[in-house]
Amino acid sequence: MSDRAPTDPVAKALALDGDPDRIRDYYRDWAQSYDSDVGEEGYRAPDIIATLARAIQLSWFDAARTDLRIMDAGCGTGLGGVALQRAGFTHVDGFDIAPEMVDAARATQAYERLLPDIDLNAADPGLADLSGCYDMVTCAGVFTLGHVEPQGLDHLVDLARDGGFVIVSTREDYLKQSDYRDYSGKLEARGSVELVHALPDARYVGDDRADYWVYRKAA
Ligand SMILES: C[S@@+](CC[C@H](N)C(=O)[O-])C[C@H]1O[C@@H](n2cnc3c(N)ncnc32)[C@H](O)[C@@H]1O
Fold it and tell me: 97 C-alpha to center of ligand 1: Å?
């Protein structure tokens, strides 16, 4: 369990209460120094998720990495897109609630299409046009305290095509304090997804740990 000072940028982000205005304001101010701040702490989630995406492509797809479409949900400054690009994926889109984070993601040139102002806590985040469009949906660092409720998983599953994959990180204290595990289990029980792989208690950022979940959407 992490023991962060209340002034630590990661600790402050965890106290945003899922309030869309506070999240936007906070990440507007953090956008410029985000990469160096989390980089100094050895933030691994985007690389772990890109590595899982590569393993999934090798394990379950006939198509080449360059033929797959990926949506990076809550893309932030684009660390996930860059990691996916390094892993050989060339068709990556992204969205985030914070426009300044999306501006930074655009500068990486790792994305084809980027959407700002998408709130995963909204009943309708405005992604209907992209429903069923993606071979994989990746989401690093977003299912964390103060950010997105477990119900946000529904929107990610909706973006995946039938038989496509959703890869998500969940920070350890989020797993303890939210009903993510129950919600994920309900989606499985309903037959919407199958949990095909998981990395429990893995590295995340600094000494903080996370679980990584790989779901396959029902065909
Ligand atoms: C810790 S950052 C992770 C960014 C990026 N995925 C990464 O791994 O570096 C969390 C991101 O989630 C976004 N976010 C927070 N709440 C959100 C929401 N309700 N809907 C969409 N994005 C949200 C923030 O704007 C921020 O860019």
Answer: 7
